[in-house]
Amino acid sequence: MPFNPFPLAWQACLVCAFALACCTSPSQAADSPPNVVLIFVDDLGYGDIGCYGATKHVTPNIDRLAQEGRRFTDAHSASATCSASRYALLTGQYPFRADVYNPVFLRSKLIVDPDRTTIADVMKRAGYATACIGKWHLGFGEKTPDWNGELKPGPLELGFDYYFGVPVVNSHPPFVFVEDHHVVGLVADDPLVYNQKAETKAFPEKFGLNQIGGAKAAHALYQDESVGTKLLEKSQAWIKSHKDEPFFLYHATTNIHHPFTPARRFQGTSETGPYGDFVHELDWIVGELMKTLKEEGLEENTLVILTSDNGGMLNAGGQHAVKSGHRLNGELLGFKFDAWEGGHRVPFLARWPGKIKAGSQSDQLISNVDLLSTLAALTSQSLGETQGPDSYNILPALLEESSEPIRDHLVLAASNRNHLTLREGDWVYISAKGGGGFTARAGHGLGGPPALLFAGEENSDIENGKFKPDAPNSQLYNLQKDRSQSTNLVREQPDIADRLRKRLAQLKAASITRPTTK
């Protein structure tokens, strides 16, 4: 029998009681809480898919989520970098509070405190089976990971019942799969060895990034072009094996992070080269997940959310896409790693038949840091003051057409800690000059003023790919009038800039920013 965490005899009373605590009405919580599938895409830019304006990519399955659900136009990752964004998603806490700004790699310990409440913990408390399948990128262990032993603590210590996926990122070693606490396919007489070249077909070997070798059997299981399909198959199997109980699936794709290595049937299918081909494979993955839900009779009572960890990146593939006439982040200024909108304004789609209005759109200011409080509200749970301290309940934005703003502010981070940013209403204040991301002219990624010159983007502080000599040391933009952030108003509106600077300092010092009830 399926486990029902809300017996009918006291269900109504529980919903009403917790509705007050979670700032949501009884109508906002489901009578029978739905399954939840969260598809967290890697590096998907605001302009990369059809329902957000892409004309050179064909994304019918993702677009269907918008047609049958709600599209958000002002959704943001709390950070413009991948590991920090995932930290925010899982914990409901701004990553800067844990001093997390940049990606973690091969030798990084787990950066999430196992004692901190996560979205998986929230769902387990409600009786859900929980799984994380895909890219992890939050580290393992209490110190340098032992890739030949137990990778613990990891996802299972953060509330997930099951984990299978890519432990770091598809552009960096160890280029193996991990299941629960161990590397898949590892044998005792052929261990992984630090600082040794790996015998692997992983594309990044061309960049000399194979810093852990040995383990021929484990490496042989990891082939770039099949990673997306492998993760999909694992999620499909997990859904089928848990269809008779409430479940929460966090499916974190390696698409569309570089290297762009889609399965062969998607190669050459787009107008933007391997970048677009990887988007096409992503769309297929989403379609196959939705097909599985339908075939198992789960489609109607499953909340599906798709969003991205940050904006699109102007790496070699992104540069080729731009040359092909594609705008990774639409009209937004900047790219992944930046404090500018292109770094963190992301697609956000939500579908739940009968609950979320089909074909609807919301302009509410929301963030991935809000999902912890939202899932708590969805399952009629209250949160302690230290749980999800920066996470707002956006369930009303998912279920209603309310014009009342849920958030009056949002703190955003770039890869450079000096570029902490405050969004308040139409205004956004950036506490330093430039985007705060890459400033390279070539190599791993093009960033900073040269990137704006390459992409044909304009900003009043920059001319011919360089900062003007008199460019101010902070920035202020009115996004209602200037969403492309072409004109820095920090000198024209000093009172607004000063007020936002002071509020940002207050929010940074605060231990909690979400609404609480006494």
UniProtKB/TrEMBL annotation:
> Keyword Magnesium on this protein?
no
Signal sequence, renumbered to the chain: 1-29
Keyword list, A-Z: Hydrolase, Signal
- GO MF terms held by the record: hydrolase activity
Q: Does the keyword Oxidoreductase apply?
A: no
Q: Which InterPro entries match?
A: Alkaline_phosphatase_core_sf, GAG_Ulvan_Degrading_Sulfatases, Sulfatase_CS, Sulfatase_N
Q: Where is the Sulfatase N-terminal domain?
A: 34-379
Q: Which family does it belong to?
A: Belongs to the sulfatase family.
Q: What is this protein called?
A: Arylsulfatase
